[in-house]
Design brief:
Layout: H1 2-10, H2 13-49, H3 53-83
Helix pairs in contact: 2-3
């Protein structure tokens, strides 16, 4: 009975839940940003071969923004990790 009480004080449920939620959000977020960057690059390549310059420019913009968001997410994670 005492071991259960000691374990309950060692593990903070709220902080553990926040950690799990943050890791899920960041894992899914970085994956979505990276996949959008890949999608934008492939669409840019396809559309530029087909002489659709406006659509190719939009795809390139999507790729650049998604790649920037992916890199910013990774940089933010590193900053948070080094501050704790």
């Amino acid at each position: 009975m005492r071991a259960a009480v000691a374990l309950a004080t060692l593990v903070e449920g709220r902080e553990l839940w926040q950690t799990v939620l943050a890791s899920l959000v960041s894992g899914v977020g970085v994956t979505v940003f990276y996949s959008l960057a890949l999608y934008g690059v492939t669409r840019f390549a396809d559309l530029s071969r087909g002489d659709r310059t406006l659509a190719a420019a939009a795809a390139a913009t999507l790729a650049a923004l998604a790649a920037a968001a992916c890199l910013a997410s990774v940089a933010f994670g590193i900053v948070v990790l080094t501050r704790k």
